[in-house]
Amino acid sequence: MKITRIAAYGLELPFKEGSYRCRNRTETGQTSTIVEIGTDAGLAGWGEIAPLGAFYSEAFAGGVRAGLGVLAPELLGRDPREVQRLARVMDAAMYGQMDVKTPIDIALWDLFAQAAGLPLAEALGGRDGHAVALYRSVSQDRPEVMERTARRHLDDGYRRLQVKVGDDPLVDAERLERVAALAGPDVALYCDANGGWTSQDALRFLDATRGLDYVLEQPCLAYEENLRVRRACARPFVLDESCDSLDALVRIRADGAADGVTVKISRFGGVTRARRARDLAVDSGLMVTVECVGGAEIASSAIAHMSLSTPAERRTHTVDFHNWFSVSNAAGFPDVRDGAMRAPTAAGLGVVPLKERFGPPILAFDLGGHGG
Ligand code: 0XW
Ligand code: MG
Questions:
Q1: Has residue 371 been placed in a domain?
Q2: Which residues are designated catalytic?
């Protein structure tokens, strides 16, 4: 099988809720870049990356799209099923830039699984269970507004809430108190600062919320600051943004720096490396959330397949990003039920991209032709 075409499309994803705020920054939507890889076998693979915003990580749509123009020519004519080799081909052509590599790598795994006649979860070693528990982020806002947002998410069936903190720790404590009082003891609560606090803020928050039951996630940005908080924290502790490489994960393991980690597919350049990080985390006795930074059904499908191929006893939860946005980019994704997400059962990602919604490609490279 040969790669004969690599095209990329742009799609704006407005938040259904109008906006989303985390780490004290508000966005009204995410800009998705969708990659299509065509082959001489008539199969096509699809991938997606939708950075949250340039404030959140070293990724933004313009950079992703410029990078795709560099990488695409490197892959034309090659066998898409050689996913490991093509990850090294991309690394040789481009140092780092994991968000650029992500949609290509996901599309290659889509093709690999299609060629094997397997859903991606099975191609990754098997589906453990049929559904993954979902959490829903409660966007950062005034405490009384977050209480109303939490009420909506609970009414929509979510039973795990991620309260966005990272602001003034005493106002954050009020945010959590209101959501906790509303949610009751049967709802799992996570307080995710996305690195918005200093260690001093985090310790003040811990002190103000001693009587509440929740998991603390990524209080500070710097790893060493999180380590100081971890040493003073008597509750379960998750690192997300600090879990940004295999080296970082090895350090988290050696330092006992967390009880769980979040493996964002785009932080690792796609399925190829995110799977390695996931497996290392599982074998290190850590709880694991596999997700990504955003996206619609194409991204959600990669998230669902990777989450379901994670051992159930080590899987925390995940996120149904496609339900955050008012625009869909693929059909055939199973409905979320009872606060849990299933993965498609058709070969590959198992969704049908709605190509007619994508408009003309923003870049396209064809084997033997010109590209750009
Ligand atoms: C909740 N998320 C998955 C959405 C944004 O990408 C940030 C991220 C998080 O872990 O907070
Ligand atoms: Mg997080």
A1: no
A2: 164, 264
